[in-house]
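Appendix B. Raw example, untouched.
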Amino acid sequence: MVDRNILVAKVTTIEKCLGKVKEKRSATIAEFMVDEDSQDIVLFNLMQAIQGCVDMAAHIVSDEGYGMAGSMNEFFYLLSGRSVISVELQEKLINAVGFRNLVVHEYAKLDLNQVYDIATNGIKDLEDFIGVIVRRFA
């Protein structure tokens, strides 16, 4: 059975990070492109929020006995396979994990246009995930 206290703690952390992203993403892309402090704050908090979603998914998969995941992406496949999340949301979260990996491992120079787009539009996917999980397990 999923531990409600763990979910509440994860949701609180994710929402705090998303709030910082919303505060620091700047009003326009032009402002964001020249504000390195805001870029750093947005990147760090996006990374933390995505990791929080992965951690929440891992907790649910483990406590509900949905199977074993060999990667972060697989947690979302397992949740989708149990109809906890839609396939569409699964794909969006897998893309978010890919973005997180770029940030963490610095595989390539980040495209600040993409970062701004994620900070402006992509965070809705994380908010949707939180909503689904809270409605189902909290």
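End of appendix B.
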